[in-house]
Write a structure and sequence with these properties.
6 helices; five-stranded parallel sheet; single chain
């Protein structure tokens, strides 16, 4: 099986066409029941691509590009959101602070960290405080699906 791995460097060096369009993914996966993900990342290209992939895989998706936006969305839709995929580096506030505030809203929030940097101390502390997992960029779509499915199944 092939895995598509995209790094930040890839997006920095791609010339994107100036036409509006969609990205088609065939993950070969669909969920049995509609689950909702909140994707939080300030890289809009990655966020939009993950949105398309998740929707093609059968998930409902909400998106945020900042910690404040993520907290507002979660506060208003916490009963609908099954999992938050949270980037560690965001403008305004970092992933650890956002995680703490999400837990203040809902102590049982399912959070998976997504990071391209080494934050071993912070991530270890977050895991001890209830974070459900970590994905280190670059990761493939199958790895992503496997992680979120295992978190939501537990």
């Amino acid at each position: 099986m092939s895995t598509l791995r995209l790094t930040k460097d890839f997006f920095d060096h791609v010339e994107w066409p100036s036409v509006n369009g969609t990205i088609d993914f065939d993950s070969g996966h669909t969920t049995d029941a509609k689950k909702t993900l909140l994707l939080v990342d300030d890289e809009r290209t990655i966020l939009n691509m993950m949105n398309e992939f998740c929707r093609e895989s059968g998930y409902e998706v909400m998106m945020a590009v900042s910690g404040k936006e993520a907290l507002d969305i979660y506060q208003n839709h916490k009963d609908d959101i099954d999992l938050v995929l949270l980037d560690m580096i965001l403008p305004g506030m970092g992933g650890f602070e956002i995680f703490q505030q999400l837990q203040a809203i809902d102590p049982k929030v399912n959070v998976v960290i997504s990071t391209g940097f080494c934050f071993d101390g912070e991530i270890k502390e977050m895991m001890q405080k209830g974070c459900k997992g970590c994905l280190y960029k670059p990761y493939g779509f199958e790895e992503f699906l496997s992680k979120i499915e295992s978190v939501m199944a537990s």
